[in-house]
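User: Predict structure, ligand nicotinamide-adenine-dinucleotide.
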Amino acid sequence: MKCIDEISKIFAGSTVAEAASLVKGEELFLVYDAAAGVYAGEFIDALTGDAKVLGTVALEVSEEMKNMDTVLSIARSMLSAGVSRQALVVSIGGGITSDIAGFTASIYKRGIRYANIPTTLLSQVDAAIGGKTGVNLDDYKNMLGVIVQPEFTFICPSVLSTLPRRDFLSGAAELLKTLIIDNSAGLYEKAVEVLSMPPSGDLLPLISAAASVKAGIVSRDMYEAGERKKLNLGHTWAHAIEHEALLRGDDITHGEAVAMGIIIAAERSDSALATRLKADFLKVGLPLECPYPLEALTDAVRRDKKAGDGWIDLIVPHGIGDVRIERTAL
Ligand SMILES: NC(=O)c1ccc[n+]([C@@H]2O[C@H](COP(=O)([O-])OP(=O)(O)OC[C@H]3O[C@@H](n4cnc5c(N)ncnc54)[C@H](O)[C@@H]3O)[C@@H](O)[C@H]2O)c1
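Assistant: Predicted complex:
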């Protein structure tokens, strides 16, 4: 097992079973994505008496069930399983699972520890790192939540082999976003090439680079007073697109919305950069065009949880590895 980032306690291994060594002697409560149930099974099998599993909850994930009802139902299961304040909640699944499980753990009995075993590319490079947890409120994304760091995040790229291509691409958008923010490892072009092909061993250095960039930013600015805002590149527009999609019953993944949001941000900033990003995203297979008119998104942007009174800090891309926080009137 390799340690990618000591501060954020991010580890990488070649099988999910290796994560069992990180939870020796613990009392565990597992929240896992039913679609990733095979990995939850591998993890449980590997515990072999080293840890005690008090209970499990399998989730059929969707943005619609990412809400307080699900949190309450998991908390009730934890209570009836006798989960104490010493126990560790382990989430095995994508960003929806880790957001819900992390939030539930963080408020259960005023907060117990949780750890993430992310099974989507998006959660390996983004959602499972940095401690943001939460659920949607009505049609508004991630309106209820807290920032509490996970005990550890265990990344295993081999789990991505069962991930549908569309979900893989959703993670590709977040991975590219992170390298657009910070390309100090010089891997952006390599990422475009590798992500345009089926998942392979070449992914791990890219996942590690993106995870390290995010972990580094979070360690310098956990509560998003400054630099962490950069991780929202494309997200103000993405959240507005996702809100509109929920209202209309359209099916747009978070990563697809992020890809469209980055293009909107680039088009408003630098047309040459927008052209380059469009070519790169097209090569990878990401959508480029937002299906809704910008005016339809403006109301949701005003209600963005990051908006102030009449202003919002937009993350404006000026080049690969050069994004700036620019306060913009609404
Ligand atoms: N907390 C954060 O910092 C943060 C950051 C980015 C995104 N998010 C949140 O993450 C969510 C999106 O995460 P996601 O893209 O991982 O979505 P997700 O959790 O919905 O997973 C995507 C799909 O993949 C399936 N799946 C998961 N692992 C699988 C596997 N190994 N094989 C086959 N299928 C598998 C799931 O069942 C689901 O259908 C959004 O709700 C978003 O708001 C949170």
